[in-house]
Amino acid sequence: MGTKRQRAERRTDALSKERIVEAAIGILDTEGESALTFRALTTRLATGAGAIYWHVANKNELLTAATDDVMARVMTEVVGDTEPREAIRAVALGVFDAIDAHPWVGTQLTRDPSQSAMLQFFESIGGRLQALGVPEQAQFDSATALTNYVLGVAGQNAANARQAQETDRSAFLATAAARWARLDPEEYPFLRRMTTQLREHDDREQFLAGIDLILAGIATVR
Amino acid sequence: MGTKRQRAERRTDALSKERIVEAAIGILDTEGESALTFRALTTRLATGAGAIYWHVANKNELLTAATDDVMARVMTEVVGDTEPREAIRAVALGVFDAIDAHPWVGTQLTRDPSQSAMLQFFESIGGRLQALGVPEQAQFDSATALTNYVLGVAGQNAANARQAQETDRSAFLATAAARWARLDPEEYPFLRRMTTQLREHDDREQFLAGIDLILAGIATVR
DNA sequence: ACCTGAACACCGTTCAAGT
DNA sequence: ACCTGAACACCGTTCAAGT
C-alpha cells in the first residue's frame, strides 16, 4: 500500500509523452522546424535520448502528435456556427490561423495529410456540405477540393515562414514584388500586372477569397 | 590553338550541372526521394563530393534544378490550346501528370513554391483568366486559388507515393478505405458514407473535378 | 578550372547497462 | 518500468591537396 501511494505521488516532472510533445512544440514555435532535434529535446528535458524513445516511437510520431495537439484545439474551438456555409469558413479560417501561428504545422500536414487532424477537418467540411444541400455525388469531390486548397495554402505558409525567418512580412513581400517587377514583361505580363496586388494583399483575406470561390463553384452543382 | 581544340573536345563524360541534375533525376525516379544523397550521386557519377559542389551550390539548388527541369517540359508541351478554359485545364493536368510520374516534384514544389516553375504556372493561369474575361480585381485571387489547389494536390500525391512505396495503388486505397470504415459512425458519419467513393475514385478525375469546381466559382464573379 | 577524398559537424536511432 | 548516455550508421558540406 505504501508502495502504491508512492507510485501515485510520482515526481511531477516525470517524463511522459505529453511533456515531450509540449517541449517539442515549444522548440518548434520559438526556434523553428530545424531546431527540433533529439539533442535539443534531451537538453530541454534534462534527460537522455533513450528516455524519449521510451515514450515516443520516432521523430515522425512526435511531429504527428505535436500537430494533432495544435489541430485538436482548433477543431474543438470552432463548433458554434450553425449556418453550414459560415461553419465551413470558420473551420477553414481556424486551420489557417493555426498554421499562421505555427508554420511547422503546415509542413507536417502537407507531409502527412492522413493525420487524424486532417480526417477531422475533412469530416467537418463534409458534414456541412451535406447540410448545405450539396448532392451526394458531388460531396466527395467538393470536400476534397476544399481540403487540397487548404493543404496548398498550408504548404505555402510554411515555405514563406521558412524563407522569411529573419525579415518581417512586409519586407519579405517587398522583395518578392521587386522580383516580379524585374521579370521580362513579354514573358510575364500577368505577374507584372499583379505586382502591386502581391505587395499589398492580405494572406488571410486572400485565403478566405479562395474558400469563397470554391464554395461558389460548389453552389453551382445542383 | 592546339590547346583550344583540346578544350573543345573535352571528354564527353565530363561533369556539368546538367549531367548532375540528370543523375539526380535518375535516382529520384527509380529509388525515391530518400535515396538522393551526395554519396549516391558520387557513386553514380564516379566522382568525389567536391566535384559536385563545384557545379552546384548545395542539395537544395540541385533539387530546385531537377524540379525546374521536369516542369519546364510540362509548361512548354502544353501550349496548343487556344480556348482559355481548356488551356487552364490542360496546364493543370500537365502539372498533375508530371507530379504523378515524379512524386518528388510534388514534395519540392510544396517545399519551395517560389520556384520559377510555379511562377510560370501562375503566369500561364493568370493570362488565361484575363482571356476568360475575369475582372482585373478577381484575377489575383483566382490564380492564387488555382495555384494553391494544385500545390495541395501535389503534396498529397507526394505523401501518398511515399506511403505507398511497396504496395500498389489499389491495395493502398483499400487499406485507407478500411481505416475509414472502422471509424466511429457517430463521430465520422461523412467519412463512413464516403468510404466507397474513396476506394473507387480516380485521382486524375478527382483532380480535374476540383479544377472545374474552382473555375465554376470564378465564372461566378462578374 | 576542375576534381579527389578525407575530415568535420551534425543527425536519428539503438542498446547494454543502470535504478 | 523507466531512464542513462555512449556508440552506430548515416547525413550535407568543407577544404587542403592534386592535375
UniProtKB/TrEMBL annotation, chains A, B:
Domain HTH tetR-type: 14-74
Claim: Lyase is one of the keywords in the record: no
Keywords: DNA-binding, Transcription, Transcription regulation
A Pfam short name: TetR_C_1
DNA-binding region: 37-56
InterPro entries on file: Homeodomain-like_sf, HTH-type_TetR-like_transc_reg, HTH_TetR, Repressor_TetR_C, Tet_transcr_reg_TetR-rel_C_sf
PROSITE patterns: HTH_TETR_2
Name of the protein in question: TetR/AcrR family transcriptional regulator C-terminal domain-containing protein
Organism: Streptomyces iconiensis
